[in-house]
Design a protein that fits this description.
Radius of gyration: 21 Å
Number of helices: 6
Length: 154
């Protein structure tokens, strides 16, 4: 019985890869997968199949993952890995200013945002919006320490 389930799974993965390749032959495409570090084993296996079978297809596969993530497929000559660094303090201040364009934030609030967000763009955006939505300039002590904390309280 179990062999039948595994066969079905392999056929499904092959069918999905064939679909992507067939679609790309009609129209070149980009397939983006975010946060591979949170992917389940079946999704990672699909990524591996796509990497293996789309080398000559007009498909660009784009993946994002945390630096500690290690893909189960080997890097190939046509692969490129780009490391995105955290934003600098100046860039964080600029991002806070853009997000809070309609709400002037006190310097101590901006400083706390720079300090607590660690240069992570999503965290900067989320915490800045949290501060703005609170409507309080005395929220500095309430700003979550981590992205996970901010999303949990959203």
């Amino acid at each position: 019985m179990e062999g039948g389930v595994e066969e079905q799974r392999q056929r499904l993965l092959a069918t999905l890869a064939d679909w992507a390749i067939g679609t790309a032959r009609a129209q070149p495409m980009v397939i983006a997968f975010e946060d591979l570090h949170w992917s389940d084993p079946s999704s990672l296996e699909l990524q591996k199949v796509l990497v293996e079978q789309t080398a000559t297809a007009p498909i660009m596969l784009v993946y994002t993952a945390r630096p500690e993530f290690r893909a189960s497929w080997p890097m190939r000559a046509h692969h490129a890995q780009i490391t995105l660094n955290r934003l600098s303090k100046r860039q964080v201040k600029e991002m806070v200013a853009r997000v809070s364009v309609r709400a002037a934030l006190a310097d101590n609030i901006v400083g706390t945002l720079v300090e607590r967000t660690g240069g992570v763009p999503l965290f900067i955006e989320e915490l800045t919006r949290l501060v703005i939505e609170s409507g309080s300039q005395s929220i500095a002590h309430q700003i979550p320490d981590t992205l996970h904390d901010s999303l949990r309280h959203a």
